[in-house]
Each structure stands twice: as structure tokens, then as C-alpha cells.
Amino acid sequence: MMATSAIPGQTSGLEPSAPAVEATVEVTAQDGADAVARAPSRRRSLLQTLVEDPARFGFDAAVAILMRATGQADPGEAVRFHAAAGLGFVASDVMAVHKVEGRFRATMGLIGLTGPSGVLPRPYTDTVDSQERQRAPALAEFLNVLAQRPIAQFVQAGIKYQPHRAATAAALADRSSAATPGLRDILLALTGYGTPHLASRLAVGAEPLMFYAGLFSAWPRSADPLAAIVSDWLGRTVEIEQFAGAWLPLDRDEVSLLPSGDGLGQFCRLGVDAAIGNRAWDVQARIILHVGPLDLPGFQSMLPDRDLLRRVTSLVRAYLGFETDFAVNPILAAASVPALEIKTAAPPRLGWNSWLPTTGLRQHNASEALFEAGLIERLGEES
């Protein structure tokens, strides 16, 4: 609903528009049983395909195409529904679509007052058929007028409980809005950020969360979806190193203390609970995101004091939570490693963007830069 937002380089998929009906369907002709050669393809719009071959479309799909084609959010205004004639079996929801006096008219086999799926007793259908054979369509037209509003409400009921269709109808009603508040709430609820004003606190904003709502909603969280999210959002290759480990500081009431006159000590039994030092190594406490290889401008945009890395960190933090720490390792391509020069435009900073010169061409990518999430977040708060 990877649900589907204002992300640089991405489209949200939440704002349908009328030109969407011009998506093409390719029709090819096979020449001979061996299909050695194919005739040139002829492209048709979805609307044209619906008019020429309505049996290929379901009821909901046909109405959605007609709503987009007319730009009407109300299905009752987009199309006039007509019941199928007779009592014979119908093999499709939509039997015919054509334009009459500037308005689309659809003959439906799925629903109606009369016809094969009619809710009125059969004598009504017999009477309608008899009068139409006498070229007196008044009764059929009158019953279709009565059925127009209930069928339109049936369509609206289906839209209400399908978020993607609700977004389409909302965009047709108000083209200045990419998503209805209801759809936004649903997508954010799937990500775990449905609480008001919670997503707005993230540096990355709410739009990426809504776009990747499908991946955010999957539990348990794992490395592959996270790599897919960050790689797609950045447009770069991203690999995740799991179990990278981290040193966790120990509080004073958790460190080993020998007995003294002030107390009996704590955690001081050899081979049981004694440990030296004030921090402990936890192999599950951290992962590392390797991004790249990058060119020099791309690498510089991934430095801790740049907005892009802060937003990446915010996106990863939103996915991981605070239970797992992480670090970002931007990798600079070997051919893009700059010479070590002291200059004011882009001064070298130890551990960030400076490398000792080497004789000859560099053989390996520069992968030494490693930026902890905590450092990036602190720099973001200070700026």
C-alpha cells in the first residue's frame, strides 16, 4: 500500500488522474502456427479496449475507467447504467459500453432491476422485452432511471472499503489533494505511525512511510525489506551487514565491584557473573548499511552534516525503532577518491573525506567512512 508519496525521484501512486486511462494495451497478431514472425503491434487505450471488448473487464474496473475518462467522482454522473435484456445467461459483468449524446452508457449483466440478474419478478422482464420488440422502450428506460441511483450507491460502497479506489475517487473530486485523510491515516497506521503528529516529527517526513507502507507493515522486521526500502529511496546499491555488534555501556549498578567496607560488592563471582570493564559487547546490537560505491558528489551528500544522510537515518530509525542501533557506511568508488589537499571549499576532515595518497592507481574502493546513527541524529538536533 509498499504501499505506494512526495519522495524525490519517486511517485506516490496515490494521485490518479484522467490521463491514466490512456495506458495502452498491446495487441499482436500471430502469423502461422509457429509464430515465427509477428505483425506490428497496434496500441489501444483502456477506454477504447473497454468499448470494443467489454467482456474483458469486471464491473469495478469498467466503472473506474469510465470515471477517469469523464473526470467524474460520482459514478452516477460518469455513466448511465442499463440492465441487460432477456433472461439468458450472461458470461460477463459488462455486456456493452457506448457513448450516447456525450454520455457513456453501460449495459450491465451483473446488476439491475430486470434482466438475468434482476431483482424484480420475471414478469417484469418479460413485459420489458415484449415492449422493446414493439419498439416501445419507455418502460425499460423508466426502470433504468429508478435503478440508476441504487447501482451508483453500490459502486460507492465498493469504493468506500477499497483504499486504492477511494484515493482515485478523492483525486477526481479534488485534484489538489494527493490522498484523502482517511487513506493517509490507513497507510500511516500500517507503518505504526498512525498516532497524530508522530510521523511529522521524523526528519524524512510521512510521505516515504506511506509509500513503503507495505514493507513497514510486515513483521518481524528483517534486513532484506530494509535494504529494499533504502536502496529504492536513494537509488543506490545498499547492502546490510547483520550482527555487526556494538559496545553497550554498563550502568554503575551493573558493573562488577569487589567487597569493601562500604558494601558486599556485586557481580564478583569468578566464572559466574564477574566481568572486567564498564561496557559489554553485544553482537546483535547493531547493523551496518553499506551504500555504494558512490561518485564524489554522491559521497559528499552522505556526510553526517548533510540533510540527505539525516533523512536516511530517520527512515532507517523509523523502520528499526530504538531496539537496534545502526551505522551508515558510504563507499566511495576507487576512481573518485580525491587527492589530499588543504582548501577552504571542501576541507579534508579526518574520518570523513580524507585519505592518504597512494602511489599509482587505487585498486580498492574507499570503505573506511563509518557514521554512527547517534552521531548523525545529534548533529541534526544541533543544526
Structure summarized in a few sentences:
The chain has 383 residues and is an alpha+beta fold.
Overall mean pLDDT stands at 81
- Regions with little confidence, pLDDT below 50 for 5+ residues: 1-41
Element-by-element helix/strand order? EEEEHHHEEEHHHHHHHEEEEHHEEH
Radius of gyration: 32 Å
Extended strand count = 13
Alpha-carbon distance between the two ends: 34 Å
Whole-number tally of structural domains: 3
Largest sheet: 4 strands, mixed
Note the beta-strand portion: 15-25%
Which strand order do you get reading across the main beta sheet? 8-11-12-13
Structure description:
This protein has three domains: 1-7 and 175-219, no CATH class; 18-170, no CATH class; 221-245 and 283-382, no CATH class. It is 34% helix and 16% strand. The chain is built from 13 helices and 13 strands. It has helices spanning 46-52, 59-70, 75-78, 122-133, 138-160, 163-173, 181-191, 207-211, 213-216, 223-234, 296-300, 307-320, 373-382; strands spanning 24-27, 30-31, 37-38, 42-45, 79-83, 94-100, 103-108, 238-241, 246-249, 279-282, 286-294, 325-332, 371-372. Helix 12 (307-320) packs across helix 13 (373-382). The longest helix has 23 residues, at 138-160. The protein is elongated, with a radius of gyration of 32 Å.
